[in-house]
Amino acid sequence: MPVQHLAIIMDGNGRWAQERGLTRSDGHRAGAKNIAKVVEAAREFGIKYLTVYAFSTENWKRPADEVRVLMELIREFTTDMLPEMMKNNVRLRTIGRTSDLPLISRTALQKAIDATAKNDGFTLNIALSYGGRAEMIDAMNKMLKERKSDEPLTEEEFRNYLYAPDIPDPDMMIRTSGEMRISNFLLWQLSYSELYVTPVYWPDFGKEELAKALENFASRDRRFGGLTKKK
Ligand code: IPE
Ligand code: IPE
Ligand code: MG
Asked: What is the pTM of this model?
């Protein structure tokens, strides 16, 4: 089975910049630019959904100047990418507590989300002010408000309250820059995703690195708790 949905923790912008004597902002700028490249490569490899972790609920703890740069980059990235997304039939989505974002970022995002809503070749899903625990809490609060039934809850029904119930669970999750942790990403959806960690920093993660990851995925035996099917 090929990778239909790929999730990526885009980590290492700061270290990438530090090693080059640049500022963290320079690193984030390079990281934002790299998203377009990886979208292109993912499309070429036949992937249908790409979810990228751009800003976590915990990243608000960072210095105000860094947060400001990241919020500005969201606006810039979204505006710059829009013509390309239209040309390539790419739909933009977001997951997370996006109402926490400043108005300039939200406005640019909403414009691109609306403009690309009917595109169906590929979905770029950006996790912004996203936390896996926040998503589950938001889902439960929504459910407490809306649910009429008193039948026992099932996984399928619970899923409908998550941010993007229509997007299938990721087949693979890649984290760049070597950290072996989930950092509050897609806690529900990653339950059976294949994990892949590369030491490469996000701004350097390109088509070749993605090809390596996909090749590695192809050799995995996904058992989902069952037994390997005899060939
Ligand atoms: C990832 O790069 C981008 C965000 C979390 C917004 P980092 O900024 O975490 O880079 P490192 O981990 O400090 O190198
Ligand atoms: C995870 O990276 C969040 C994003 C890439 C957006 P962090 O750099 O924030 O994660 P930790 O702090 O190393 O766990
Ligand atoms: Mg980091």
From this structure: 0.98
For 176-211, the pLDDT digits (tens) are 999 999 999 999 999 999 999 999 999 999 999 999
Ligand 2, atom 8, residue with closest C-alpha: 11
Q: How far is the CA of 135 from the centre of ligand 1 (A)?
A: 21
pLDDT score at 229: 74
Burial 2-19 (b: 16+ CB within 10 A, else e): ebebbbbbbbbbbbbbee
| Cβ(200)–Cβ(221) below 8 Å | no
Q: For residue 185, what pLDDT is reported?
A: 99
Is 11 catalytic? The answer is yes
Task: State the distance from the centre of ligand 2 to the C-alpha of 183, rounded, in angstroms.
Answer: 6
So what's the pLDDT on residue 188?
98
Smallest CA-to-CA distance from 8 within 195, 188, 215, 230 is with 195
Cα 122 to Cα 88: distance, rounded to the nearest angstrom: 8
Q: How far is the CA of 210 from the centre of ligand 1 (A)?
A: 19
Relative to the alpha carbon of 63, which ligand is closest? Answer: 1
* Ligand 1 interacting residues, C-beta cut-off 6 A: 10-15, 55, 59, 70, 177
- 10 vs 28, 80, 126, 175, CA distance in Å? 10, 19, 11, 6
Residues of the chain with pLDDT under 70: 230-231
pLDDT digits (tens, 9 = 90+) for 137-162: 999 999 999 999 999 999 999 999 99
> Which amino acid does the sequence have at 188?
W
